[in-house]
Amino acid sequence: MFYNLQGASPFDASTYLVSSRPFLSSSFAVPISGTTAGSVLKITLPKVSKFIMVKNETSTGGSSAPIRVAFTDAGCRGLTAPNYFKIGNGEAISADWAVKEVYLMGDGAVAPTASIVAGLTQADTFNLPDFTAGSGV
Q1: In the beta sheet, which residues pair with residue 118?
Q2: DSSP state for residue 4 in the 8-state scheme
Q3: Which helix (H) or strand (E) holds 94?
Q4: CB–CB of 66/94 below 8 Å?
Q5: What's the pLDDT tens digit per position in 44-97?
Q6: Per residue in 87-112, is it b (16+ CB within 10 Å) or e — as a string?
Q7: In whole angstroms, what is the distance from residue 74 CA to residue 133 CA?
Q8: Can you tell me the distance from the alpha carbon of 45 to that of 41, in angstroms, rounded to the nearest whole number?
């Protein structure tokens, strides 16, 4: 009998029912907007995420240093439309999003620091379609 074992897919519910593998990155500097052409920080995940949490680690006692969070470079820069959301000093956002990349950029004069925690599935990132700035992300 022939079995077609293709591995985990980001489109199968069973991929998200099992425990995820941890992905951690902390206290990294986020470039601020308007500095250089490469001022967006791209975080590439090794597998498709089950959930993701982004935290602005900037001290709440200092100057305001919000972070833009997006899923495309153009969306983070606001080239076609401001397709990003902001998290302020000491704030975090956590959601059950299946993504393979996250883009960060500081949205002020002070360079923020950030941390990311993600739960990774077994699904390879090449199976997840690329987002485009025109699709609202």
Answers
A1: 23, 52
A2: -
A3: strand 92-95
A4: no
A5: 999 999 999 999 999 867 788 999 999 988 888 887 778 899 999 999 999 999
A6: bebeeeeeeeebbbbbbbbbbbeeeb
A7: 6
A8: 13
Nearest Cα residue to 114 out of 64, 55, 63, 65: 55
Reading the block at residue 7, the tokens are 């591995």
pTM of the model: 0.86
Bridge partners, residue 56, by sequence = 114
Q: What length is written for the chain?
A: 137
C-alpha Rg value of the chain to the nearest Å = 16
For 13-46, the pLDDT digits (tens) are 888 888 999 999 998 999 988 655 558 999 999 9
Of 73, 74, 67, 129, the C-alpha closest to 98 is 129
Find the Cα–Cα–Cα–Cα dihedral 82, 85, 90, 96, rounded to 10°. Answer: -150
